[in-house]
Amino acid sequence: MSSPSSRKHAGTGVAGAQPPVPEPSFAERKRTLVHMGRVGSLSTLSRKRPGFPFGSLMPYGLDGKGRPIFLISTMAMHTQNLQEDARASLLVTQTDANGDPLGSGRVTLVGNVAAIAGPEVGEARRLYLERHANSKYWVDFDDFSFFGMDVVDVYYVGGFGVMGWIAAPEYGEAYADPLADAAAGILQHMNADHQEALILLARVFAGMEAQEAVMTAVDRLGFHVRIKTEEGMKGARIAFLHEVSTPAETRKILVEMVQQARQA
To answer: How crowded is residue 192: how many other Cβ atoms within 10 Å of its Cβ?
Structure first.
């Protein structure tokens, strides 16, 4: 179970209008985005050019607190930079930007990166190889070692106008959304096979008349839709009737909501 602080709901809405639609907390959204990612941009402090940031493409694993694990070579410039100065940041971006990268989510983890000690290497190896199975071909090379980031701060951008810092402990105590690994399949199924149902749900549960509707995100509390109306493109969030935790529960609640909408 997650901690109470990590399960607080955020919300969307306009003051004085309808009550906010429950959403996962910022901490949950950040953990989910980092969980779904596999590769980020690691910025270290250049040894060759002191004071300048040096960017590297960086695959990563995650431990139970959401801390990144890296498998890096002593020959790599970023490794040499970290040996000189442990301060670094890792930028992870949402894989599906819906055609607009500036409107997508991204997380920047700021922390200190150091080699992982002997007793912890076995677990780091297991977690990393779970995400990057092909690394088994070089994981045992003499010049490769596991490094871990001790996160000290986290910055989140959830799209236009949604951004802010969150304390590292709150990030570490949060959990990735239970639908994170299934979300892409749910979106593909709903958008390919249930366009009329999405239009109906938008009208009844969001109060918006849609010519077209596309589900753009889904989580344990609800989903987002991008809607084409006579006035142009709009977005809305629709809450589930109750919280879900599996794809089967998600399908069941969507069927129930469609049935309610048809009776409305």
So the answer is: 8
